Amino acid sequence: MRVERVGEPHEPAGDRHDRAVGLLRRSYAAVPRGEPVRLAKRTSNLFRPRAPVTSPGLDVSGLTGVLGVDPVTRTAEAQGMCSYEDLVAATLPYGLMPLVVPQLRTITLGGAVTGLGIESTSFRNGLPHESVVEMDVLTGAGELLTVRPEGEHADLFAAFPNSLGSLGYATRLRIELQPVGRHVALRNVRFADLDALVAAIGQVVATGAWAGRPVDAMDGVMFSPDESYLVLAAFTDDPADAPDDGRPAGGRGGPSDYTGQGIYYRSLPRRERDLLTGHDYLWRWDTDWFWCSRAFGAQHPLVRRLWPARWRRSDVYHRLVRLEHRYGVAARVDRWRGRPPRERVVQDVEIPLGDTAGFLRWFAREVRMSPVWLCPLRLREPSGPGSARVWPLYPMRPGETYVNVGFWGTAPIVDGASDGDVNRAVERAVAAAGGHKSLYSDAYYDRAEFDRLYGADAYRAVKARYDPEHRLTGLYEKAVARQ
Fold first, then answer.
1. Range of the domain at 267
2. Which CA distances in Å does 68 have to 14, 172, 188, 285, 297?
3. Residue 4 domain-assigned?
4. How high is the pLDDT of residue 404?
5. Do 34 and 156 have their domain in common?
6. pLDDT at residue number 238
7. Residues with Cβ < 8 Å from 149, sequence gap 6 or more?
8. What is the 3-state secondary structure (H, E, C) of 100-151?
9. C-alpha–C-alpha distance, residues 291 and 294, integer Å
């Protein structure tokens, strides 16, 4: 590894990492028997409430850095609590990026691997855990193990994704990297028909190109069933490579900047093409938490001018949401105004490509939230067709294209309905389409359905081997019972 980013001056990163792991293991030993073992951290990107923890947590304060970047092998080593913001800052000087960079800056590498993550390169590179070469995991039994795709602990390696910390915590991960250009040229392709949108996704996945030009990354937005967009990205070191349709590529002839008054998702209907720096492309959604900053007034022109730029970040909005969960100010205001209570509907679901148009029409008709994020993905095939690895706790089918549909907001609880009804309807619709949903937010499955969808047999075998005393809260208990 060529770069050391962890440690005091003149202290090797490895020594600092060893000390941090020692502190973690001592904090594990300090948790009394019978008490749940959990991380002692103040921030989270999860939307699941959980029961308060009174026992001491695991000290991960020293596990937040980048250990090294090797531009020759195109790999990086980072600690489990390293944010993607810090990881990208270390790799971009080499013209490299992680194979998949979840859009929100403070998502951690370990969190994306154990809890899943996705972004616009996922139609080529799958999910973040598929780029992991090896990792060190502190198990529920208190053992620190190095796990790889093959070997003695291959079962833990395979079951770790979507285990949500119920099998152990990653302290160090080595991941693959890929080149990224200094600029990213974008084509915002509009579709008035969802079937045409789905067909276009299939074509890009099959050919890696659209209209004769290569596509390195792809995501999109549905504003309504008759207005949706695919954002087709090409990495380039030469901004002149951007497609020429006679429109300016970015503000004032240069790359666009959506960290100020501009709002990224609103640019899609206005621009057929765009140009961003590589750095700004990776974080294009973070400034406005996709579009959720509008809930705080941050998209109102006056409020936006007064809202400090350093606070226009997804983690700031998430802290505001946690305060609302705690104090319920908005809910009280709605009651005062005579408005119905609202159900939180915050989900990311994976729908097979062939069922995506039907699911989106159902969603627009029944849930009526807009916009909706669209992100195609496939399990990674590093050695060619048929080589995709199967991950038992999130069993997607190798060789099949899915579309992640992300929707984040609230829906009114109408007369005669109960809180949770909309989310349950979404779960039924996802199941009917043969899809899956991520578990970072509310889930309502009964135990039998959950076990069927999320690899219960494989999970129980690995749990029995690496956490036989169940020191770590179980997956169902975390995801559904909210412990």
1. 183-285
2. 10, 11, 36, 27, 40
3. no
4. 98
5. yes
6. 81
7. 157, 158, 389
8. CCCCCCCCEHHHHHHHCCCCCCHHHHCCHHHHEEEEEEEECCCCEEEECCCC
9. 6
Which pLDDT does position 248 carry in this prediction? 43
The sign of the CA dihedral 461, 467, 471, 473 is negative
pTM over 0.70: yes
Same-domain check for residues 26 and 166: yes
What confidence score (pLDDT) does residue 41 get?
Answer: 64
Report the first-to-last Cα separation within the chain, whole angstroms: 39
CB atoms within 10 A of CB 483: 14
The answer to whether the beta carbons of residues 181 and 175 sit under 8 Å apart is no
Query: Encoding tokens for residue 11?
Result: 């202290």
Long-range CB pairs of 69-72, under 8 A, 24+ apart, other chains included: 69/1, 69/2, 69/3, 69/94, 69/96, 69/177, 70/1, 70/2, 71/2, 71/95, 71/96, 72/2
Q: Cis link prior to 395 (omega < 30° from 0)?
A: no
pLDDT on residue 319: 85
Q: Which two tokens stand for residue 303?
A: 């409020």
Contact residues for 15 (Cβ-Cβ < 8 A; gap 6+): 7
Q: What is the pLDDT of residues 340-394, one digit of tens each?
A: 788 989 999 999 999 999 999 999 999 999 999 999 999 998 877 777 788 999 9
Token pair recorded at residue 110: 């370990």
Same structural domain, 93 and 191: no
Domain count, the chain: 3
Please report whether residue 212 resides in a domain.
yes
pLDDT in tens, 105-123: 999 999 999 999 999 999 9
> Domain for residue 95, yes or no?
yes
Q: Which two tokens stand for residue 296?
A: 């705080």
Of 94, 74, 70, 84, residue with least CA distance to 117: 84
- Point out the residues of the chain with pLDDT beneath 70: 1-11, 41-55, 241-253, 324-325, 327-339, 483
CB-based contact 43:480 (threshold 8 Å)? no
